[in-house]
Protein backbone atom coordinates (compact mmCIF):
# COMPACT_ATOMS: atom_id res chain seq x y z
CA UNK A 1 0.00 0.00 0.00
CA UNK A 2 1.22 3.49 -0.80
CA UNK A 3 1.96 5.17 2.52
CA UNK A 4 0.94 8.59 1.22
CA UNK A 5 -2.69 7.51 0.90
CA UNK A 6 -3.07 7.26 4.69
CA UNK A 7 -0.13 9.28 5.95
CA UNK A 8 -2.49 11.03 8.40
CA UNK A 9 -2.86 7.79 10.37
CA UNK A 10 -0.91 7.45 13.59
CA UNK A 11 -0.49 3.76 12.73
CA UNK A 12 -1.66 1.59 9.85
CA UNK A 13 -5.42 1.23 10.06
CA UNK A 14 -5.70 3.36 13.22
CA UNK A 15 -6.54 7.07 13.47
CA UNK A 16 -4.80 7.32 16.86
CA UNK A 17 -1.96 5.48 18.58
CA UNK A 18 -3.06 2.59 20.76
CA UNK A 19 -3.61 3.68 24.39
CA UNK A 20 -1.06 2.53 26.93
CA UNK A 21 -1.69 -1.07 27.88
CA UNK A 22 -3.68 -1.97 24.74
CA UNK A 23 -2.07 -4.73 22.68
CA UNK A 24 -2.28 -5.28 18.93
CA UNK A 25 -3.24 -8.93 18.35
CA UNK A 26 -3.77 -9.10 14.58
CA UNK A 27 -4.06 -6.88 11.55
CA UNK A 28 -4.94 -7.75 7.98
CA UNK A 29 -7.10 -7.18 4.92
CA UNK A 30 -9.38 -9.15 2.58
CA UNK A 31 -7.99 -11.29 -0.21
CA UNK A 32 -9.19 -9.41 -3.28
CA UNK A 33 -9.78 -12.46 -5.49
CA UNK A 34 -11.96 -14.11 -2.85
CA UNK A 35 -13.71 -10.79 -2.30
CA UNK A 36 -14.44 -10.50 -6.03
CA UNK A 37 -16.05 -13.95 -6.08
CA UNK A 38 -17.91 -13.85 -2.76
CA UNK A 39 -18.96 -10.20 -2.42
CA UNK A 40 -19.15 -9.01 -6.02
CA UNK A 41 -20.20 -12.35 -7.58
CA UNK A 42 -17.75 -12.18 -10.47
CA UNK A 43 -18.26 -15.85 -11.34
CA UNK A 44 -22.03 -15.43 -11.53
CA UNK A 45 -21.66 -12.44 -13.82
CA UNK A 46 -19.18 -14.38 -15.96
CA UNK A 47 -21.69 -17.22 -16.26
CA UNK A 48 -24.42 -14.74 -17.19
CA UNK A 49 -22.30 -13.21 -19.95
CA UNK A 50 -21.30 -16.68 -21.21
CA UNK A 51 -24.96 -17.62 -21.51
CA UNK A 52 -25.69 -14.31 -23.22
CA UNK A 53 -22.92 -14.93 -25.75
CA UNK A 54 -24.19 -18.45 -26.40
CA UNK A 55 -27.73 -17.17 -26.86
CA UNK A 56 -26.58 -14.51 -29.33
CA UNK A 57 -24.67 -17.11 -31.33
CA UNK A 58 -27.57 -19.59 -31.29
CA UNK A 59 -30.02 -16.89 -32.34
CA UNK A 60 -27.78 -15.88 -35.24
CA UNK A 61 -27.44 -19.51 -36.33
CA UNK A 62 -31.19 -19.96 -36.25
CA UNK A 63 -31.56 -16.87 -38.42
CA UNK A 64 -29.27 -18.48 -41.01
CA UNK A 65 -26.17 -16.37 -40.41
CA UNK A 66 -23.81 -19.35 -40.52
CA UNK A 67 -21.03 -20.18 -38.07
CA UNK A 68 -18.89 -17.15 -38.91
CA UNK A 69 -21.82 -14.78 -38.68
CA UNK A 70 -22.93 -16.33 -35.39
CA UNK A 71 -19.45 -15.87 -33.92
CA UNK A 72 -19.35 -12.24 -35.04
CA UNK A 73 -22.78 -11.66 -33.51
CA UNK A 74 -21.63 -13.07 -30.17
CA UNK A 75 -18.35 -11.16 -30.36
CA UNK A 76 -20.27 -7.89 -30.36
CA UNK A 77 -21.19 -8.46 -26.71
CA UNK A 78 -17.76 -9.71 -25.65
CA UNK A 79 -16.02 -6.32 -25.11
CA UNK A 80 -18.87 -5.12 -22.89
CA UNK A 81 -18.77 -8.35 -20.89
CA UNK A 82 -15.00 -8.16 -20.40
CA UNK A 83 -15.24 -4.51 -19.36
CA UNK A 84 -17.92 -5.29 -16.75
CA UNK A 85 -15.89 -8.16 -15.30
CA UNK A 86 -12.73 -6.05 -15.26
CA UNK A 87 -14.55 -3.26 -13.40
CA UNK A 88 -15.82 -5.71 -10.78
CA UNK A 89 -12.37 -7.23 -10.31
CA UNK A 90 -10.79 -3.77 -10.14
CA UNK A 91 -13.26 -2.63 -7.51
CA UNK A 92 -12.54 -5.74 -5.44
CA UNK A 93 -8.82 -4.97 -5.66
CA UNK A 94 -9.40 -1.38 -4.53
CA UNK A 95 -11.59 -2.50 -1.62
CA UNK A 96 -8.92 -4.92 -0.43
CA UNK A 97 -6.17 -2.35 -0.92
CA UNK A 98 -7.91 0.34 1.15
CA UNK A 99 -9.24 -1.94 3.92
CA UNK A 100 -7.47 -2.68 7.18
CA UNK A 101 -8.98 -4.85 9.91
CA UNK A 102 -7.36 -4.49 13.32
CA UNK A 103 -7.89 -6.71 16.36
CA UNK A 104 -6.57 -5.66 19.76
CA UNK A 105 -7.22 -7.01 23.24
CA UNK A 106 -9.92 -4.33 23.70
CA UNK A 107 -11.65 -3.84 20.34
CA UNK A 108 -11.99 -4.49 16.63
CA UNK A 109 -11.24 -1.57 14.31
CA UNK A 110 -12.38 -1.52 10.68
CA UNK A 111 -10.86 1.04 8.34
CA UNK A 112 -12.89 0.76 5.14
CA UNK A 113 -13.86 2.81 2.10
CA UNK A 114 -12.48 3.29 -1.41
CA UNK A 115 -13.39 6.92 -2.11
CA UNK A 116 -14.32 7.94 1.43
CA UNK A 117 -12.28 6.33 4.20
CA UNK A 118 -14.24 5.56 7.39
CA UNK A 119 -12.94 4.00 10.59
CA UNK A 120 -15.31 2.03 12.82
CA UNK A 121 -14.23 1.41 16.40
CA UNK A 122 -15.97 -1.63 17.96
CA UNK A 123 -15.08 -2.19 21.63
CA UNK A 124 -15.78 -5.73 22.84
CA UNK A 125 -18.44 -4.39 25.20
CA UNK A 126 -20.54 -3.61 22.09
CA UNK A 127 -20.02 -7.02 20.46
CA UNK A 128 -22.57 -9.60 21.51
CA UNK A 129 -21.07 -12.51 19.56
CA UNK A 130 -18.95 -13.43 16.55
CA UNK A 131 -19.46 -16.21 14.02
CA UNK A 132 -17.12 -17.75 11.46
CA UNK A 133 -17.97 -18.89 7.93
CA UNK A 134 -15.02 -20.97 6.75
CA UNK A 135 -14.27 -22.10 3.19
CA UNK A 136 -12.32 -25.11 2.07
CA UNK A 137 -9.24 -23.08 1.08
CA UNK A 138 -8.90 -21.57 4.56
CA UNK A 139 -10.41 -18.20 3.70
CA UNK A 140 -13.46 -17.11 5.62
CA UNK A 141 -15.69 -14.35 6.94
CA UNK A 142 -16.19 -13.31 10.55
CA UNK A 143 -19.53 -11.65 11.36
CA UNK A 144 -19.85 -9.48 14.46
CA UNK A 145 -23.26 -9.22 16.14
CA UNK A 146 -23.60 -5.87 17.90
CA UNK A 147 -25.33 -5.75 21.26
CA UNK A 148 -28.06 -3.48 22.56
CA UNK A 149 -29.01 -0.49 20.46
CA UNK A 150 -25.65 -0.18 18.74
CA UNK A 151 -26.14 -0.04 14.99
CA UNK A 152 -24.19 0.81 11.87
CA UNK A 153 -26.12 1.38 8.64
CA UNK A 154 -25.79 -1.52 6.20
CA UNK A 155 -24.89 0.78 3.31
CA UNK A 156 -22.13 2.37 5.39
CA UNK A 157 -20.59 -1.07 5.88
CA UNK A 158 -21.04 -2.66 2.44
CA UNK A 159 -19.29 -4.77 1.26
CA UNK A 160 -18.11 -5.37 4.82
CA UNK A 161 -21.61 -6.34 5.96
CA UNK A 162 -23.27 -9.73 6.34
CA UNK A 163 -25.75 -10.40 3.53
CA UNK A 164 -29.49 -10.00 4.18
CA UNK A 165 -29.00 -8.61 7.70
CA UNK A 166 -30.61 -5.25 6.89
CA UNK A 167 -32.65 -4.71 10.01
CA UNK A 168 -29.74 -5.42 12.33
CA UNK A 169 -26.59 -5.03 10.22
CA UNK A 170 -23.58 -7.11 11.19
CA UNK A 171 -20.06 -5.85 10.45
CA UNK A 172 -18.17 -8.50 8.49
CA UNK A 173 -14.45 -9.14 8.27
CA UNK A 174 -14.47 -10.52 4.73
CA UNK A 175 -12.33 -12.91 2.72
CA UNK A 176 -9.72 -13.38 5.44
CA UNK A 177 -6.74 -15.64 4.86
CA UNK A 178 -6.26 -17.97 7.86
CA UNK A 179 -9.75 -17.04 9.02
CA UNK A 180 -9.87 -19.76 11.68
CA UNK A 181 -6.83 -18.33 13.44
CA UNK A 182 -8.27 -14.80 13.32
CA UNK A 183 -11.61 -16.04 14.66
CA UNK A 184 -9.85 -17.77 17.55
CA UNK A 185 -7.95 -14.56 18.31
CA UNK A 186 -11.22 -12.61 18.47
CA UNK A 187 -12.91 -15.32 20.55
CA UNK A 188 -10.06 -15.26 23.08
CA UNK A 189 -10.11 -11.46 23.18
CA UNK A 190 -13.90 -11.43 23.72
CA UNK A 191 -13.55 -13.94 26.54
CA UNK A 192 -10.78 -11.90 28.12
CA UNK A 193 -12.80 -8.69 27.85
CA UNK A 194 -15.83 -10.40 29.43
CA UNK A 195 -13.70 -11.70 32.31
CA UNK A 196 -12.21 -8.26 32.84
CA UNK A 197 -15.65 -6.63 32.80
CA UNK A 198 -16.85 -8.98 35.55
CA UNK A 199 -13.78 -8.23 37.65
CA UNK A 200 -14.19 -5.73 40.53
CA UNK A 201 -10.97 -4.02 39.49
CA UNK A 202 -11.82 -0.59 37.94
CA UNK A 203 -10.92 -0.01 34.32
CA UNK A 204 -7.89 2.12 33.47
CA UNK A 205 -8.48 5.75 32.62
CA UNK A 206 -7.28 5.26 29.07
CA UNK A 207 -9.46 2.27 28.30
CA UNK A 208 -11.59 2.25 25.16
CA UNK A 209 -15.14 3.60 25.73
CA UNK A 210 -17.88 0.99 25.70
CA UNK A 211 -19.67 2.33 22.66
CA UNK A 212 -19.26 2.24 18.93
CA UNK A 213 -17.00 5.01 17.77
CA UNK A 214 -16.60 6.53 14.32
CA UNK A 215 -13.44 8.51 14.98
CA UNK A 216 -12.78 9.58 11.45
CA UNK A 217 -14.44 9.94 8.07
CA UNK A 218 -12.26 11.36 5.32
CA UNK A 219 -11.55 11.24 1.58
CA UNK A 220 -8.36 9.51 0.50
CA UNK A 221 -5.50 11.62 -0.74
CA UNK A 222 -4.85 11.52 -4.46
Q: Can you put this structure into words, describing what you see?
A:
- The protein is an alpha+beta fold.
- It folds into 2 domains: 3-7 and 12-16 and 20-30 and 100-199 and 208-219, Roll (PH-domain like), CATH 2.30.29; 38-92, no CATH class.
- The chain has 6 helices and 8 strands; from the N terminus they run βααααβββββαβαβ.
- The chain has helices spanning 32-38, 42-62, 66-75, 78-98, 154-157, 179-197; strands spanning 24-28, 100-104, 107-112, 116-123, 127-134, 140-146, 172-176, 213-219.
- A 5-stranded antiparallel β-sheet has the order 1-2-3-4-8. Strands 5-6-7 form a 3-stranded antiparallel β-sheet.
- Helix 2 runs antiparallel to helix 4 (78-98).
- The chain is elongated, with a radius of gyration of 22 Å.
- Mean pLDDT is 85; it is low at 201-211 and 214-222.
Helix content: 25-40%
Biggest sheet, strands in spatial order?
1-2-3-4-8
Number of domains as seen in the coordinates: 2
Rg over C-alpha atoms, rounded to the nearest angstrom: 22 Å
Average of per-residue pLDDT values: 85
Question: Number of helix segments?
Answer: 6
Give start-end ranges of low-pLDDT stretches. Answer: 201-211, 214-222
Portion of residues in beta strands equals 15-25%
Distance between the termini: 13 Å
Q: Output the helix-strand order.
A: EHHHHEEEEEHEHE
Structural class: alpha+beta
* Total number of beta strands: 8
Shape verdict: elongated
Give me the CATH fold name of the largest domain.
Answer: PH-domain like
The major pleated sheet works out as: 5 strands, antiparallel
CATH architecture of the largest domain: Roll
> Any idea of the CATH class of the largest domain?
Mainly Beta
Amino acid sequence: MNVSEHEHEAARGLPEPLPAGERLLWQGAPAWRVLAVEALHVRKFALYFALLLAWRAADALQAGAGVTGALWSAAGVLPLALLALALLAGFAWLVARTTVYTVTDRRVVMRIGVVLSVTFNLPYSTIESASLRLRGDGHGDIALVLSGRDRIAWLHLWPHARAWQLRRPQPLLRALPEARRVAQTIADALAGAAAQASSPVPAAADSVPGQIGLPTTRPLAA
